[in-house]
Amino acid sequence: MLRRLEILDRRLSETDAEDARILLYIAPDEAERKHLTEDLGIDPHTLASASDPDELGRVEFEPGHAAIIFKRPKQYCADDNFFFKISSVGIFLFRERLVFVVAEDNLRFEGKHFQQINSLEELLLKVLFRCIWHFEEHLKVFNMIAEELEHKVNLSMENKHLLHMFTLEKSLVYYLNAISSNGRVIDKLKATAARLRFTAEDVEFLDDITIENSQCHEMATTYSHVLASLVGARVSVVSNNLNVLMKRLMIVTIGLMLPTAVFSIFGMNVKLPISEDSGALGFWIIIVVAILSSAAVFMMYRWKKL
Question: Is Ion transport tagged as a keyword (predicted)?
Answer without folding.
Answer: no
